[in-house]
Specification:
Order of helices and strands: HHHEHEHHEHEHHEH
Mean pLDDT: 86
Distance between the termini: 57 Å
Strand content: 5-15%
Strand order of the largest sheet: 2-3-1-4-5
Helix content: 55-70%
Shape: globular
Number of strands: 5
CATH class of the domain at 45-74 and 115-217: Alpha Beta
CATH topology of the domain at 45-74 and 115-217: Rossmann fold
Largest sheet: 5 strands, parallel
Low-confidence stretches: 1-13
Bound molecules: shikimate-3-phosphate
């Protein structure tokens, strides 16, 4: 039987480019990104949208951040599954990824105009430019990430992720991650590295960053 931990640690070095891509700063400089983010915080509502790859903790962290801010927490996968009356895995089996993506965009569109929400999005929601525009219109976009092996270990804990139900989930996972990093980085207002942090510590870091943005804006 494979030792996941040793395996994970050894394989980490196979993906040094992913680690450095995840650690690099957002492509826009901070004074540039702070101003549109602050304007959205001030002039619109205070919605928070979590983006990031499978296993980064968008739902667990998002739920806690919502609680701290007194916002409503929404999880786009949960909304999609509830409306479809099917699990995400069943949607993928019956309608394929294309069907799921249509449902995802339709669901996200229903959130336009919301206020005081914290939204956890599916890892692939950033693929569609329509969704990306929606997120920007909604509020502050936070990219939650962690080192690749942690993401993989967390994402493979349960069988709720149809994209990983393949022959070689590990390489699929890393190549998807690689292709999406530029999309997350290209649209995020804030990038939060949760590597080595507990959920509570990550939430604290996020709350502090939001407070910083709000104080800089006043
Ligand atoms: C997906 C991520 C999943 C879910 C679906 C597709 C993706 O959400 O939306 O399985 O394309 O990365 P999580 O990021 O919450 O696992």
């Amino acid at each position: 039987m494979k030792n996941e931990k040793t395996d994970g640690a050894r394989r980490d070095s196979e993906f040094p480019h992913l680690i450095s891509a995840l650690q690099s700063p957002l492509p826009h400089n901070s004074s540039f990104i702070l101003s549109p983010a602050m304007n959205r915080l001030r002039d619109m509502t205070s919605n928070i949208i979590f983006i990031g790859f499978m296993g980064c903790g968008k739902s667990s962290i998002g739920r806690r951040v919502a609680h701290r801010l007194g916002h409503q927490f929404l999880d786009s996968d949960e909304l999609i599954a509830a409306r479809a009356e099917m699990s995400i895995s069943d949607i993928f089996s019956l309608e394929g990824e294309a069907g799921f993506r249509l449902r995802e965009t339709a669901e996200l569109k229903t959130l336009a105009g919301s206020s005081n929400i914290v939204l956890a999005t599916g890892g692939g929601a950033i693929l569609n430019p329509v969704n990306r525009d929606l997120f920007h219109q909604l509020g502050l976009v936070i990219w939650l990430h962690a080192e690749p092996d942690t993401l993989f270990e967390r994402a493979s804990r349960n069988r709720k992720r149809p994209l990983l139900e393949v022959e070689n989930p590990r390489s699929t996972f890393f190549s998807l991650l690689e292709s999406r990093i530029p999309l997350y980085g290209g649209m995020a207002d804030l990038k939060i590295d949760a590597t080595g942090l507990s959920h509570e510590q990550t939430v604290e870091k996020i709350i502090q960053q939001i407070a910083l943005l709000e104080n800089n804006g006043s």
